[in-house]
Amino acid sequence: MTRLFISLCIFLALAPGSVLADRDDVATAANALKAGRYGEAVQLAKPLSDAGNPDAQLLMGILYFGGLGVAKSPNKAFELYTKAAEQGQAAAMHNLATMYYRGEGTNINFGLSRDWNRKAAENGLVVAQHDYASMLRSGVGGPPDRQKARFWFKKAADAGYANAAYKLGLMLRSGPGSNARASVAYLCKAAYGNHPEARQALGSNIQHCRR
Predict the structure, then answer these.
(1) Closest by alpha carbon to 78, among 37, 116, 23, 39?
(2) What is the pLDDT of residues 140-183, one digit of tens each?
(3) Among 61, 70, 88, 173, which is least packed by CB within 10 angstroms?
């Protein structure tokens, strides 16, 4: 599982219905976080979070999880991610899935981790598409489903997620639905994404890679 999704692509996954003025304030808070001005980030985000803004709840969850400008509290982060996720905030869904997977701020629950990753994946979050596919492939949190795993790895790979391209390339090498040409193509895609294991897996086939 990927570590908590704390990059500021939070704004590529804004919750539906967010007020534009609030978005501007949360964006300013996120920029303050990125610049290391944690107190300013808290000052801007907390009132909106307390008022129920899901994007601000995500941001405050990140701050509480990392102990940035506030006392470190995985439990509080979990609570805020839950509130944001239930309002459709995709990055919060993924963070919640990761906390369930690792038992941070809550008990380990692979079934709920898989379910929240699915929801985030369906909302278009690429990292969640990769993580959900990984759980489908290995049967974590539910029965394995290689066909669905390939589908979600492909979605993430086609969006430029190198590790998804690598895993899809390996899956296409053998078993039901195998396709040698597609396998090489996705391994090449991963290799050009600076994925060292993909380069190793390609071996001499790397000569057939074309950008």
Answers:
(1) 116
(2) 999 999 999 999 999 999 999 999 999 999 999 988 889 999 99
(3) 173
Burial of 200 per CB tally in 10 Å (0-12, 13-18, 19+):
exposed
Instruction: Classify residue 143 by burial, with Cβ atoms within 10 Å: 0-12, 13-18, 19+.
Output: exposed
Neighbours of 147 (CB within 10 A): 9
Backbone angles phi, psi at 11, to 5 degrees: -85, 0
SS3 for 53?
A: coil
Element (DSSP H or E) covering residue 188: helix 180-192
State which amino acid sits at residue 161: Y
Return the number of other C-beta atoms located less than 10 Å from residue 151's C-beta: 16
CB-CB contact of 2 with 98 (8 Å): yes
Global pTM exceeds 0.85:
yes
Ranges of each domain in the chain: 8-145, 160-211
Q: Which two tokens stand for residue 175?
A: 């078993």
Instruction: Answer yes or no: are the C-beta atoms of 34 and 11 closer than 8 Å.
Output: no
Residue type at 151 in one-letter notation: F
Is the domain covering 8-145 a CATH 3.40.630.30 domain?
A: no
